[in-house]
What we know:
Structural class: alpha/beta
Number of strands: 10
Order of helices and strands: HEEEHEEHEHHHEHEHEE
CATH architecture: 3-Layer(aba) Sandwich
Number of domains: 1
CATH class: Alpha Beta
Strand order of the largest sheet: 6-7-8-3-9-10
CATH topology: Rossmann fold
Amino acid sequence: xxxxxxxxxxxxxxxxxxxxxxxxxxxxxxxxxxxxxxxxxxxxxxxxxxxxxxxxxxxxxxxxxxxxxxxxxxxxxxxxxxxxxxxxxxxxxxxxxxxxxxxxxxxxxxxxxxxxxxxxxxxxxxxxxxxxxxxxxxxxxxxxxxxxxxxxxxxxxxxxxxxxxxxxxxxxxxxxxxxxxxxxxxxxxxxxxxxxxxxxxxxxxxxxxxxxxxxxxxxxxxxxxxxxxxxxxxxxxxx
Length: 239
């Protein structure tokens, strides 16, 4: 059903203004007396309203770059801008508010609270964001978008891996962010379920106008993404 809706979606009106801009970014980690360069002068732009993928082998720098864009880490040099705002100028509190209010996160391991239902896992994110009015409706709408309305009151252990990841995506959607960062969301799923998650991400971009930036080494990502950035040894090698 998602793929059928995908085919009928319209992309002509998509904005080309970058929601993310990375300028000559390096990230060097110190390990004792040694230094490890995870990123080596990365420059890239991600236009608003697309499904973009950071692709590369383990250790290529995908997760490091995603963490910098999400304000979870700071570069050694260079600048990361989100919504046109240099993250280096934001305080720790301002970065927390940015993540809470305007960026959704999806994780490889789902990161669900096992004693909470799907609905409660999604609603919790709205509570953290300080949303009180219409919280139940927003949580249910997010679950409906990912096709889990009938499973709203199931616990994670009652759901398949693919369904649990859909809950994670619904949680990221709930606060209506402009940007979702997804770190290897298909890494713990079989190939068929992984394709469903890829199609769902593309569908969300087309339906909701949200930018999705995903780090993955999944070979099927090229079939669903509007743009693919290939990383190798901490550098963008294409496009």
